[in-house]
Design brief:
Order of helices and strands: HHEHEEEHEEHEHHHHHHEHHHE
Bound molecules: S-adenosylmethionine
CATH class of the largest domain: Alpha Beta
Oligomer: single chain
Number of domains: 2
CATH architecture of the largest domain: 3-Layer(aba) Sandwich
Radius of gyration: 22 Å
Helix content: 40-55%
CATH topology of the largest domain: Rossmann fold
Structural class: alpha/beta
Distance between the termini: 39 Å
Shape: globular
């Protein structure tokens, strides 16, 4: 039976062009392994991957499920981080993963019958869904008795540190734009002497900055939130906990699948978060399930079970 590291190697060999960022397969592979381990998830007959993206998580789940059903939104949209269902179809065919079923759908309306899956897995998806309560209700509906839901979500700390990573990104973009051009423009001579930057370029830079970053100086919200503050306050564990309760779900485990705040560490060096993540796998394993460290992670993992009334 193929294990997750084997799926990572095969994905890198057969479909490297599907990685949205460098070493995506490697990092997701480690996150999924760690999450399944920290959740003490046993093998199941049928798993459902909600918001399966490029299909990698379906392949990873196929190592612990006899059959994997996955779905995602049909089209490509940067707003929902959707890569389109075609990508997962291509990936699964390329990898030759059998016993999978792929569909185009929204988490708010899952096209499966009641009580038809043993595990619902959703990795960095629920924060993108506008009606989270409806999506949780749907996840609960399709779960067989004794089944569970594993959710991975960005943590409060990750969102709290997001402005630092955003300002670093803006500063690096600005530095590129302000670098002296090789061929001087006609309007350059006077203003360049005074400021080093052509005035027309300064005006257009400010306009461009505000046009591309409407929430400046804060980052634009990530996921289906209307503002950064709504996203930040919505990322607190107690907000998620009350949403789970209202959907009739009990959180039986809460774990932290990885500890270092990636966005912040990437400011020091782009490769640092991944390097640290790899070097400290054992630390994640030991601390990721312990209460005092849960708040320090860049992500939350929740294991949910339907409340029996
Ligand atoms: C950040 S990506 C995560 C993708 C993948 N699970 C992973 O971990 O790499 C968010 C995913 O959620 C999906 N998504 C957003 N809104 C959704 C919805 N209403 N129903 C199902 N999937 C949705 C997007 O299409 C995208 O694939």
């Amino acid at each position: 039976m193929t294990r997750i590291p084997g799926i990572v190697t095969e994905s890198e060999r057969l479909a490297p062009e599907l990685q949205p960022w460098p070493r995506y397969f490697e990092r997701r592979g480690m996150e999924i392994s760690l999450a399944l381990e920290l959740a003490a998830q046993p093998r199941v007959a049928r798993a459902l991957d909600v918001g399966c993206g490029n299909g990698f998580s379906m392949a990873a789940l196929s190592t612990m499920a006899d059959e994997v059903v996955g779905f995602d939104l049909p089209g490509v949209s940067p707003l929902t981080h959707s890569v389109g269902i075609k990508e997962a179809r291509y990936y699964l065919a390329r990898m030759g993963i059998g016993r999978t079923m792929l569909m185009a759908a929204s988490a708010e309306q899952i096209p499966l019958t009641d009580c038809s899956v043993d595990l619902v897995f959703a990795m960095y998806v629920l924060e993108h869904v506008p009606d989270k309560a409806k999506a949780l209700g749907e996840m609960r509906r399709v779960l067989r008795p004794g089944g569970r839901i594993i959710l991975l979500l960005p943590s409060f700390l990750d969102r709290l540190l997001a402005p630092l990573a955003h300002w670093h990104y803006l500063a690096s973009r600005l530095a590129v734009r302000l670098r002296p051009r090789k061929t001087p423009q006609p309007d350059d001579e006077f203003t360049q002497r005074a400021t080093g930057i052509p005035s027309t370029r300064r005006a257009s830079l400010a306009q461009e900055l505000l046009a591309k970053n409407p929430s400046f100086p804060l980052p634009d919200p990530h996921g289906a939130y209307s503002s950064y503050w709504e996203e930040l306050t919505g990322s607190r564990t107690r907000v998620w906990a009350s949403m789970f309760r209202e959907a009739g779900l009990d959180a039986t485990h809460c774990f932290c699948p990885y500890l270092p705040p990636h966005g912040l560490l990437a400011i020091i060096h782009p490769r640092l978060p991944m390097w640290l993540f790899i070097k400290t796998q054992e630390v994640h394993r030991r601390l990721g399930g312990m209460e005092p460290f849960r708040r320090l992670g860049a992500a939350y993992g929740f294991v949910l079970e339907p409340r029996i009334s």
